[in-house]
DNA sequence: TATTTTTCTTAAGATATCTTATGGGTAGAA
DNA sequence: TTCTACCCATAAGATATCTTAAGAAAAATA
């Protein structure tokens, strides 16, 4: 299995792995191709894998009682996506993870990750840092949700994820921001007129 | 330094420390008393410590350009509070952490924490799990912010933090939920009428 | 105890955002 | 190519939430 995108990410952003750790990881990583609109996680199913996106794009979302989707996270090249709650509690997920494009991923199953944690502390280290970064980013999102208007949140989204907004529809962005597509459209008009 | 509340928390919720790790931790933890309304972090200052609350209650918040406070987090007994962004980036914080009650805390400074990470991998492990839990909780909050009404968010807050809502003012809860105190008052009236 | 500050409530008018409906444009499927 | 589905925009009326102002109750401070 060619896991170099993942190793590169580790050495660029986090702590590089010694040879033995690389070997142990290699044996446990599964590569997959996922077509647009396919799911790698569905509600009611336990989330059994950490997923690293090599190529492509995913959304993780919830469907509420009225049938509306609410996007929690997007993941593109060189990012991780997993329902941490379901993965660690080993309970069925409330969330869906769906490919927005044809994608290539690398996955690690729960038991394999636990093996790696127990035998190479660099995985505790790196995954600690990975989730710390995700936490900080998510904290900014909470802060904006409780303190900013939808227009401010949209402008910040464009600034923060310049690669994403050409790539996904405004419907998806609206769902991420917590507004209706109609209202996002009104916001975009208002911005364009300035 | 008596750090047993912290050690108890580790062994109840996470992985217990071997003796050497306990010793190394003990030498590096600083205990403090903090009076109500005192700050343990202010905007413009780097966040240099992880803080474990032994007794009391804190809020972490931002003040926006209009001078309004927005509560990001509360911390009571046996919980951690830190501005991760400032702590790890070593940049000035945008946030305040202020005591809502007379409190007792245990603190670990950045270099000391790094020492512990490097010499005892159990700290990488435990702090990974601590922030994973915090991430999952915060993710639920994001989901609610983008998908629920203020009334639903308030009812969920009461259910999720039954110990907190007798202890802090509705002004603080409103700021956490992202609504004005006046509107929270209207929500409470509506609920009471049911 | 007396005084000051903070909290909670109420209400009226303003603004942000949603709902529903409609139509045109564009990309994918047959 | 034709058909279908989805996307984006627009608009009118409804609902959620904010702003401002005021007063009474409760808590903190002198």
Briefly characterize the structure.
Chains A, B: It comes from Splendidivirga corallicola. 2 copies of one chain form a homodimer. With 194 residues, chain A is an alpha+beta fold.
CATH superfamily of the domain at 4-121 in chain A: Jelly Rolls
CATH class of the domain at 4-121 in chain A: Mainly Beta
What is the number of helices of chain A?
8
List the quaternary state of the chains.
Answer: homodimer
Overall shape of chain A: it is globular
Q: What class do helices, strands and sheet pairing of chain A give?
A: alpha+beta
One letter per element, helices H and strands E, the order of chain A comes to HHEEEEEEHEEHHHHH
The profile of the biggest β sheet of chain A is: 4 strands, antiparallel
Strand and helix map with partners:
Two copies of one chain form a homodimer.
Chain A lengths: L3 H10 L5 H10 E6 L4 E3 L7 E7 L1 E7 L5 E8 L2 E3 L2 H6 L6 E4 L3 E7 H10 L1 H27 L2 H11 L9 H8 L3 H13 L1
Antiparallel strand pairs in A: 1-8, 2-7, 3-6, 3-8, 4-5, 4-7
Helix pairs in contact in A: 2-4, 4-5, 7-8
Chain A binds a DNA duplex (30 and 30 nucleotides) through helix 8.
Summarize the structure in words:
- Chains A, B: Residues 20-113 form the Cyclic nucleotide-binding domain.
- Chains A, B: It comes from Splendidivirga corallicola.
- The structure is a homodimer of 194-residue chains.
- By secondary structure, chain A is an alpha+beta fold.
- Chain A has a domain at 4-121: Jelly Rolls (Sandwich).
- Helix content of chain A is 49%, strand content 23%.
- Chain A has a 4-stranded antiparallel beta sheet with strand order 1-8-3-6. Chain A has a 4-stranded antiparallel beta sheet with strand order 2-7-4-5.
- In chain A, helix 2 runs antiparallel to helix 4 and helix 4 crosses helix 5.
- The model of chain A has no long low-confidence stretch (mean pLDDT 95).
- Chains A and B meet through strand 5, helix 3, helix 5 and helix 7 of A and strand 5, helix 3, helix 5 and helix 7 of B.
- The first copy, chain A, binds a DNA duplex (30 and 30 nucleotides) through helix 8.
